[in-house]
Design goal:
Length: 227
């Protein structure tokens, strides 16, 4: 039996929920060239499902703000960067990039507010949020590690890469690129979500999954922290 705000009901739900990054359930939303699983990360999801715990899928901000599943707004921008790399026009191109990121950050704030309100609603209704699992290699969802996307794109030669590596991304090359780009910090959406939860005085465990690390170790660590 559950009772909150004069609403009483009886059913089989156990009122426990885990929030997860969109691509943990759907690898098709990963940035092109970096999907390390065929469809989903079943090894993380299965133990949660077997315990009858609900899974709430967070929206993919990169699909929403980077031009859909194919990230068209990113790939459309790359030839211009390559053509005018560090030319007299490059400062103007960088300015457009910063404006683009500013708009993306606004989108992350808007969605983070919505998701934080959803979490608050669950908690106020008597549900237990066991945690949030995100991808820990993302400029958007990283928890302890992230990527400064604009810094990489605007200085890709300093990192020892060719822009073609991004224009035609392949898994093995992207693995090399990401390993060199990861820095300490939080992704844009994760940072905004944590700020919104803090304002609501909600403390939730957030765990990052590193798809480039040993799978068995990562899955065991996450299951221990969440379950």
């Amino acid at each position: 039996m559950s009772q909150k705000n004069n609403i009483t009901f009886e059913d089989n739900r156990i009122k426990k929920i885990v929030f997860v990054s969109n691509c943990l359930l759907n690898q098709n939303c990963r940035f092109p060239g970096i999907a390390t699983f065929e469809g989903n990360v079943l090894e993380i999801l299965e133990p949660i499902l077997k315990k009858g715990i609900g899974i709430e899928q967070l929206p993919c901000l990169e699909c929403m703000g980077w031009g859909g599943v194919s990230r068209k707004s990113i790939f459309k921008f790359l030839p211009t960067i390559k053509r005018h790399y560090r030319s007299k026009l490059f400062p103007i191109i960088k300015l457009f990039g910063k404006i683009w990121y500013w708009n993306y950050k606004r989108l992350c704030k808007k969605v983070a507010k919505k998701e934080a309100s959803k979490i608050k609603d669950y908690k106020n209704s008597g549900y237990e949020i066991l945690g949030i699992i995100t991808m820990n290699d993302s400029p958007t969802c990283g928890v302890t590690r992230t990527i400064d996307l604009l810094n990489f794109i605007f200085n890709y030669k300093d990192f020892g890469f060719k822009l073609e590596d991004l224009e035609y991304p392949k898994l093995e090359k992207m693995k090399e690129i990401i390993s060199k780009l990861l820095i300490e910090g939080q992704g844009t959406f994760t940072r905004e979500l944590l700020e919104k939860l803090k304002k609501l005085k909600i403390n939730i465990k957030i765990v990052g999954f590193n798809p480039w690390h040993n799978y068995d170790e990562e899955i065991e660590r996450i299951n221990k922290q969440i379950l």
